[in-house]
Amino acid sequence: MAEASTSRPLAASSVPRWDLEHEVVVVGHGVAGGAAAIEAARAGADVVVLERMTRGGGATALSTGITYFGGGTEIQTACGFRDSPEDMHAYLRLAAGEQADPERVRLYCEGSLEHFRWFRELGVEFNPTFLDDKVTHPFGTECLTFSGNEDAWPERELARPVPRGHKPAREGEAGGYLMEAVLRGTAESGARVVNECRALRLVQAADGRVVGVVARRERERIAVKARRAVVLATGGFIMNREMVAKHAPHLLQCNYRVGTPGDDGSGIRMGMGAGGDAINMGEGLVLNAYYPPSSHLKGVLVDRNGQRFVNEDAYLGRTSDAILRKADGRAFLVVDDELYGQTQAFHKLAAVEESFEALEKALAIPAGALVRTLEVYNESAARGEDPLFHKAPRYLRPLSAPPFAALDCSTSNSIFGVFTLGGLSVRATGEVLGPDGDPVPGLYAAGRCTAGLPREGRSYASGLSIGDASFFGRLAGRRAAQLAPWD
Amino acid sequence: MAEASTSRPLAASSVPRWDLEHEVVVVGHGVAGGAAAIEAARAGADVVVLERMTRGGGATALSTGITYFGGGTEIQTACGFRDSPEDMHAYLRLAAGEQADPERVRLYCEGSLEHFRWFRELGVEFNPTFLDDKVTHPFGTECLTFSGNEDAWPERELARPVPRGHKPAREGEAGGYLMEAVLRGTAESGARVVNECRALRLVQAADGRVVGVVARRERERIAVKARRAVVLATGGFIMNREMVAKHAPHLLQCNYRVGTPGDDGSGIRMGMGAGGDAINMGEGLVLNAYYPPSSHLKGVLVDRNGQRFVNEDAYLGRTSDAILRKADGRAFLVVDDELYGQTQAFHKLAAVEESFEALEKALAIPAGALVRTLEVYNESAARGEDPLFHKAPRYLRPLSAPPFAALDCSTSNSIFGVFTLGGLSVRATGEVLGPDGDPVPGLYAAGRCTAGLPREGRSYASGLSIGDASFFGRLAGRRAAQLAPWD
Predict the structure, then answer these.
(1) CB-based contact B284:B418 (threshold 8 Å)
(2) How far apart, in whole angstroms, are the C-alpha atoms of residue A134 and residue A132?
(3) Backbone phi, psi, residue A442, to 5°
(4) Could you tell me the pLDDT band of residue A4, with boundaries at 50, 70 and 90?
(5) How close A178 gets to chain B, by Cα (Å)?
């Protein structure tokens, strides 16, 4: 029987005995927890990692493994792209969202080359190859991709477009490969790993300092003392329907929750119970992938009134957000016979017709509305222009090869992936902050249980969460190792 | 010097002496606090109300005073409208938003007639007159109005349209008049009122029970013991820019914050510090009033691409939300010479031209886009139809009397009022709940410091906040008075 975690911390005075004692206790062994453990151990601390699953990995192990690096990595240079921390910063401040933490953005860009080396030194390989295609899950071993809105409007006019998504050199989903290296790194750092050990609540001293964790290890309840600090790296809350309803109800429309069962918000709630603030809780990344094939980006995305509402070639975090917010969850991608291909998300065909008129009728769009939209689109696409939404010229071409098909991109009829981007309020260096902005002593956090680097789905780029979690997990681990012991 | 409040509760053991002692301590003397105090006192409790301003009133005193009542009030009946708790419920579950608390909606509808009588017995007068016009701030003494989306699409097809906004019988803004009655009611109930007394932090016993408040009364810091309970009725957080940035960043676009200086979130933060959860924090009501004159509802609202995106006759909470979310904050209301009038919010004219073509050019809308939209609108309006957004026939008429004017409804160029709809997680009966759903013992809350009845701006109706705050303030007061004393 799983025992539920509780947000209410246990008073240290109520702990009968400490079953384990370490300097730094890391909760969760995904990429954030692994990075924190490695750095804390390398800084000389005695570290334990508590992982609730049988083995670490977290959501990263389920992902493509694409990680956001830049500033001029060897891979970027080998592929012929010039990048600099300044160019990266110009883009990343947009990608991180309007409520980005400028300190985080700055540190991430300044430290990106070192961060890339850190992964390579852990043994993660990257090939010096560029994948010149819009894909969401690259199957091959090519490394570099435009993984966000770098080359889409309006970002392409505001920051020099450079690809920064780096996929490890493995076919298919490479997140497991990347996490193997991190788990190996944790082991080699000397940190102790306790699997099948689920944190249930924090332990707090009378002065408010977090001094340990109560956990369930297999059938046994244990108290784990943290002489210096606890680092929460427990993931987001997309698997907790009640929390999503409370904090990000619009995400309930999405039918495919991206994460592990551990992404139940337990760390966020434990942190809140100890006095931490949870912020940015309404934001998430929403993913409806109507490409590949990238020919679909030459299609026309319309709402139920046949109106366009976004540049179709934007990163899918933006187009999917627009389907939810601007089109009220109901949208169709119109393609012609030459553009059509099966998507990896198996979009259903809402209609296939020989003319725009027939398609409009089949989709029950008000008479004339879709026809006008497509005629106008075709006219300007023929000139290589998109005055309404500024789709890039490479994706502009009139729809002219019947039959015309409408892929159903509605929330009710297609796959909408989703994960959360809100969590504990945390300094870039990992200290968990309360509603008044004061740190909760002894408590650190990183990864998706925090409001981290990426704050908005509509500006997101693939690789930012793994990048954020590992980069700021490392900082949190280093800082936690330096905190003066409390006893 | 104002002393800042802090979310961290003070341990009861650290209180040197209690300066005041009462059974129920109500924090804030707006409509929620007044209602709570009156009911707690009537239930026999010894009550004190702490008000930070020189006098009570809260945001309600600054408002029109329109309150949402239904189910067949004498006013509705006198004006020839049939209503029932069931009809009211059918509408209110929509108006409360997708994440509405069904228990709250049910109680509110079942209790609405009694709730209306309660206000009349306090001395608030309402005239048996119906104002058959779309207005946001009725100037006269007419009472009844369609104050939300009751008669707009799609609600009008889902619930029988009945007006339920009740304005007290005073010219101009009647909220002050309504609050005078509530303040008088508080005084007559026997509750003690301490003005210029600002709550700074809660006092919590070792077992977690909230047992008092530390406050600053003029220059003096005092400890106020709550033998039974504390009721937070401190208002929302729209005046706290930092909190808005953390929890509802999109509301920062709005330039006119609706509330009093007290709406700084202090009660929400104090409640969080004592273990309460804050939910629905990303939601707010946004108000860009391009009417009256109601002739403007016959205009056409377009985005920067000349596309329509909402039925113009919806409640302004919905149209304004659509300007933000669907039009990215940039929109124009196009009217012709016969429809044009000065709005009360003094919208600027972005352009006035003799033809649609010239207007499109003046607004820098891509060539042909606005012209097409207006031509299509005119064609269907001439038939009394709006196939795209289902505006009501009474507001459908072709734009045909040049010159044509575009009122600038952009966030950067017009007034966007805003207040918050998120706050403490609270049972309908007032108990503040923690992240795990357990009540924080001794702590109650009502009004805009809670996530209450209305959860979404885009479904909102005028009168719901005063209605919510007073109705559930009363419940919280009654419940607080019943809690067993702790010492």
Answers:
(1) yes
(2) 7
(3) 85, 0
(4) confident
(5) 32
* Residue B280 near residue B101 (C-beta atoms within 8 A): no
Q: Which amino acid is at B192?
A: R
Residue-level pLDDT at A336: 98
CB B288 within 8 A of CB B345: yes
User: How confident is the prediction for chain A on average, in pLDDT?
Assistant: 96
Which residues of A lie closer than 8 Å to B, measured between beta carbons? 4, 6-8, 98-99, 208, 242, 245-249, 269, 272-273, 275, 277-282, 305, 307, 309, 325-326, 366-369, 372, 376, 387-389, 425, 434-438
Q: Are B465 and B95 in contact (CB under 8 A)?
A: no
CA angle centred on B79, ends B73 and B82, rounded to 5°? 55
**SS3 at position A97:** coil
User: Which amino acid belongs to residue B367?
Assistant: A
Residue B372: closest CA among chain A residues belongs to which residue?
A372
Question: Quick check: helix, strand or coil at residue A162?
Answer: coil
Q: Is beta strand A278-279 parallel, antiparallel or unpaired with respect to A349-353?
A: unpaired
**B376, A388: Cβ pair inside 8 Å?**
no
Judge whether A72 and A89 are in contact, CB under 8 Å.
no
**φ and ψ at residue A329, rounded to 5 degrees:** 80, 10
User: How far is Cα B110 from Cα A53, in angstroms, rounded to an integer?
Assistant: 48
Do residue A282 and residue B247 have CB atoms under 8 angstroms apart?
yes
DSSP letter at A120 equals H
Mean pLDDT of A220-243: 97
| Contacts of B77 by beta carbon, 8 Å cutoff, 6+ apart | none
* Distance (Å, whole) CA A94 – CA A76: 21
| A393-440 pLDDT, tens digit each | 999 999 999 999 999 999 999 999 999 999 999 999 999 999 999 999
Q: Strands B192-194 and B165-166: what pairing? A: unpaired
Mean pLDDT, range B165-186, rounded to an integer: 97
Which of B178, B179, B189, B212 shows the shortest CA–CA distance to B27? B212
| One-letter identity of residue B269 | R
The mean per-residue pLDDT over the stretch A94-98 comes to 96
CA A44 to chain centre: 30
> What type of residue sits at position B201?
R
CA atoms within 13 A on the CB side of A83: 32
Give the count of beta carbons closer than 10 Å to the beta carbon of residue A16.
Answer: 6
The DSSP bridge pattern shows strands A20-27 and A47-50 to be: parallel
Question: What DSSP line would sit under A311-340, residue for residue?
Answer: -TTS-HHHHHHHHHHTSTT-EEEEEETTT-
Nearest one of B276, B287, B97, B138 to B202, comparing CA atoms: B276
Interface contact flag, B269 A436, Cβ < 8 Å: yes
Residue A35, CA distances (Å) to A28, A39, A180, A328, B92 in order: 11, 6, 12, 39, 49
List the single best residue of B207, B270, B281, B328 to mutate versus A (max A Cβ within 10 A). B281
Give helix B112-121 / helix B464-482 axis angle, nearest 10°. 90
Contacts of B437 in chain A (CB under 8 A): 242
Interface test with B, best of A307, A365, A426 (most B CBs within 10 A): A307
Q: Which residues of B touch A272 (CB under 8 A)?
A: 272, 277, 435
pLDDT of residue A1: 40
- B409-463 pLDDT, tens digit per residue, is 999 999 999 999 999 999 999 999 999 999 999 999 999 999 999 999 999 999 9
The mean pLDDT of A300-310, rounded to a whole number, is 98
Q: A-chain residues within 8 Å CB-CB of B3?
A: none
Burial group, residue B295, by CB count within 10 angstroms (0-12, 13-18, 19+):
middle
Is A45 in contact with A481 (CB distance < 8 Å)?
yes
Phi and psi angles of residue A211, each rounded to the nearest 5 degrees, phi first: -125, 5
